[in-house]
TrEMBL record:
Domain Peptidase M3A/M3B catalytic stretches: 332-813
Classification via Gene3D superfamilies: Collagenase (Catalytic Domain) (3.40.390.10), Neurolysin, domain 3 (1.10.1370.10)
Free-text remark on how the cofactor is bound: Binds 1 zinc ion.
Transmembrane segments: none
Name the UniProt record assigns to this protein: mitochondrial intermediate peptidase
UniProt GO cellular component terms: mitochondrial matrix
Subcellular localization: Mitochondrion matrix
Amino acid sequence: MPVRERAVESSPSTSATVVAAAAAAAATVTAEAAAAATAAAVSRAATAATASPSISTTSESNDLRTLFDAPSTMRGGYGRRRDLHYGGIGGHYGAKPATPATTAAAIASAASDTAGLFQYPTLKTPETFLESVNAAIARGYLLVERIAHAPERGEQEMKKVIKLFDRLSDVLCKVIDAAELVRCLHPDPAWRQSAETVYEELFSWMNTLNTDPRLYSVLKRVVDTPAIERGLSAAERQVALVFLRDFEKSGIHLSDAKRADFVRISDKIVGLGRDFIQRTTTPGAGPAHIMVSPPSRLQGLSPTYIQRITRTNKMGEQTAAVPTTGWEAQMVLKHVEDEGVRRAMYVASMAEDKSKVAILDDLLRSRYELAQLVGMESYGDMFLVDKMVKDTENVAAFMTALYKSQMPAVSAEVELLRKAKEVHTKDKDAKLQAWDRDFYARMVSARTNTQDHGDPINAYFSVGTTMDGLSKLFSRLYGIRFVAGALQPGEVWHEDVQRLDVIDEREGLIGTIYCDLYAREGKQMNAAHYTVRCARRVDDDDEVNDVAAGMQLRDGVELAMADPGVTIQGKPGRYQLPLAVLSCGFSRPSGSNSPTLLSWVEVETLFHEMGHAMHSMIGRTDYHNVSGTRCPIDFVEIPSILMEHFLADPTVLGLFATHYKTGAPLPAGLLTANEANRSTFRALELHSQMTMAILDQLYYSSMVGKSNFNSTGVMEYLQNKLGVVPSVPGTAWQTGFGHLYGYGAGYYSYIFGKTVTGQIWDQIFRASPTSREAGERLREHVLKWGGGKDPWACLGGLLEDERLCKGDKEAMRIVGDWGTARSSRV
């Protein structure tokens, strides 16, 4: 399954008046010293760039910048046509969508002219997408029967069982993962509906396979037969272990009736999860607008905007109607001086929606029921059994130690905000409330803008410049670069989507990344990395023997066929190459001379998601089921979070951060001010993440089984016990916490990843962040394995610490010590 989306929170604005009395307490370094250090680092980067040129050419760099900053100028190049279809039915780039009167002949003609999404012939139209399910199940059925009868065919066939399992997983996941992407990103409702049908049908069948005792018994026999087990590679053992754990977590030892219950509950969870995610961004039970009278109470917002939303009644009284969703609500909470208005906006925008709460509570109870069915105390226990942390006790110990170590810094930052409110309101007894945090964080952070640095920092981060910078960074670290790829008709689902071919200096083409970076109506806006196709070796598939002697296929049944694969320089055999998609919600460029300029948080998001994508590209194993990001959730975040450290390094920024108009490098003073702004409330940001991670653990604990459980009550309890501001009656922010489905019981992994990557950065990269030696070390010990090696062994090898390789409580204690030591330096 693909890595699920990661929510991106907006950084505090820095455009308000300085609260000098509050800001002074937070100053830790002099601007002059920081600027000098930054300038030196940027200078070193510029020198290194000259002395050690990237393998990507100037022409390729220009192509990348143009591809993302002025895409219209590249239409017609790289195999692209202005009239190409975006996935079968529905129209062309720049054309009106097809009308309902479109004839069947016209549809068939349009489909025949396209390559299909991702150049898959089965993805030319919504109808062919639906048909692909039958082909996948037909091939899957053959593989299931071949596995089930392997013992009858002798030892040589039994040696192929692990490969057969992996092929079965690949056949199904290539369709279901494409469906996951289409239902989230495709603009055409017909495509999205087909994707929903495909996803639900195949997911249900996969759950049935996970409870098939015939398959489990054959696989168990393979690993328990010494003559076969001795000949297994380390990767084969890991693949077998993953499949065995999946069977056992799916209740393989249960009765037939209870296994059927497992499938039924699992199907229900998929539906509830879909409903929950869809509702996280829909309006709640509160009013659509708050009515503010007189409009002057909106002081802090743009006068032009206030005038636009103001209406005058017959009595001459003026009232402003402010929407309670979207950017308008955020602007009120960040900028409006009047506390009463901010309070009204917070309560309205976070108002408890009973229907949303009911869906969430049903989801939590269903997962608890599933865990109970397989003999686990809670869903958290069931979920964590094959993760790095192993169990809920280790998560609790890790989070508790980190929470305690963070509290001094958190308390200091809370007092900074409270002091800001005291100065602003002239009330020495002022108490911080939920609707105050963004407002006073913005005011305190504004101290970094006391010096004029010219253009804002986003002027140095166009999308094209940032993508070029990522290519240059990967060139230095791994010898890998991006090249603007040729698009065939029907290959992508929207004209915004661009293709990057990923080129390794030693191995040639190693994969493809599609970039769907801009916001549009109907698209899921959370940043995400989707794996549409995993890497695996295909020349030893032995498809010819899938159809047993005497077996007759029904007339007209088509079989899903394996990817023919390509040869990789320096490697034997043929390989299916990985295909990944990055999705973001950036503003689209308005023209060839006006590229999209990214905020720091947006650049960080792009670096993070590209970390996932590169894990997919480099982690090309022989087996689909352990390729790339198919690894434990608390390991999969490590390569992506590590990328955030690279962005924060001046040496790396010196490779690419240049003004979109003048080409001037990012000024050291502006970078220093940005870092000071970001670090002001770093402890509070981590505290918020910890609070959500602890809430996630509570929601997936055994307390869900209590008759009086309700998610709002648990949220209020935790908010009042651990939060920096009290809970607000009548609100329920947990219904907007989308990760409760995709990362259920695993939200701790982001904090765990930050702790681990902090140590990796300090030990491996800090001294020389663009070092090829350091990059190859990360590649060899972590990235290339995907999920084919125990994560603790990967980490222990990278950091040269044998104690970590065991992955026991001692290893967890070491990681916890890293976190607490880092907290003391916040």
